[in-house]
Every structure is written in C-alpha cells, then in structure tokens.
Design brief:
By secondary structure, this protein is mainly α. Strands 2-1-3 form a 3-stranded antiparallel beta sheet. Strand 1 and strand 2 form a beta hairpin.
Length: about 190
C-alpha cells in the first residue's frame, strides 16, 4: 500500500481530489487481494475484481479536549549583576546647557535689534566693506612681512661691510674712489597688529 501512495505522490499529482477526498481502487478477490491503487478522481473506473474506495483527506475537527492541570512553579532565577554607575552631576550638565542656550538666545535677540531697520542693500554694502578691509589687511600684512625681512638683510650687509673697514682699504689704494660712509644699523621693524 505504501508503494502505491509513494509512486503517486512522487509523480507530482496531488493525492487529494477537488472534492477533498482521496480516491482509490482496491483488489477485493484473487491474487494480490487487498492491494490499493490511488486514482485521480471518483470518475476513474476500477478494473474487474477491484472496488472503489474513498476517504476524506482531513476529517472534521474533534471536540475540544479537557483543560490540563496547571503546571508547577518554575525555578527561581539568579540575581543579575549590578549595573554600571551613571555619570555624576547630570543636573549640572543640563543646567550648563540651559545657560548656554539662554546666552545664545540673548545674542540672537541682540543681533535682531541691531539689524532691525536695515534693508538688504545696506547689508550687502556692509558685507562688501568688510571684504575690502580683509583684502587690504592681507596686503598690508604681506608688505609688513617683506619689510621686516628686508630690514634684517640690510643689517646683515652693514655688519659684514662694516667689519671690512672698506673706507680704510680704499684710502690705502690711493684714494682713487671716494666712498660715502655706511649708515648705521636700522632699528628692528615690527608689524602693526
């Protein structure tokens, strides 16, 4: 019987017909009596000495069973480990943040008061003036830096020539060239801040 069911189910056909039953033919007499062959539907005719049989693939729901007795109490669990200590002074941190927010709100209100009545064109002009001042400061800073380097180099040249006693050497040569006296060292240069 199992081989008939297995061969039918492996062929890909469903054992259950559209009416929800499984239909089969079984051999009622002769050699092989009791053999069972599953067929596709109730319309299939069984060979001689075979009889039709069918049964529902799933029966009706049975009555609800009796309620089981309550289970016993489970074992007591072990205590968990202590948690990590929280960071202290959370209230202090919150208060500090509140103070910063209040300070920022005060600055925004102050800025709104300053900008009250200023139109867009005036604001653009003010921004342009600031940009021009920044560009000028950059140029002045560059010139100042170059002047400082030039002062340092001139002082190095004066120091080197002064050590040679150039006037005395030229006078020894017969006074052919008259050289002006060398200037003294320049005072140190500092850029305005």
């Amino acid at each position: 019987m199992a081989s008939a069911l297995t061969s039918t189910s492996t062929s890909g056909a469903s054992l259950v017909a559209k009416d929800g039953k499984i239909h089969a033919c079984y051999k009622a007499k002769g050699k092989g009596k009791g053999s069972l062959r599953v067929v596709r539907s109730a319309k299939v005719k069984c060979p001689k000495k075979w009889k039709k049989v069918s049964w529902y693939a799933s029966g009706p729901a049975g009555p609800q069973g009796e309620a089981g007795s309550p289970g016993g109490n489970g074992e007591t669990g072990t205590n968990g480990s202590s948690g990590v200590n929280g960071t202290p002074a959370t209230a202090t941190v919150v208060k500090g943040l509140e103070n910063k927010v209040t300070e920022l709100l005060g600055k925004v209100t102050s800025l709104e008061t300053i900008l009250n009545g200023i139109n867009n064109q005036q604001l653009k002009e003010a921004i342009g003036a600031v940009a021009d001042v920044k560009a000028l400061e950059s140029v002045v800073g560059s010139l100042c830096s170059q002047s400082s380097a030039l002062t340092s180099q001139l002082n190095s040249v004066e120091s080197a020539l002064g050590g040679l006693k150039l006037n005395a050497v030229l006078t020894t040569l017969g006074g052919l060239l008259e050289t002006p006296s060398l200037p003294g060292p320049l005072s140190s240069f500092s850029c305005p801040s």
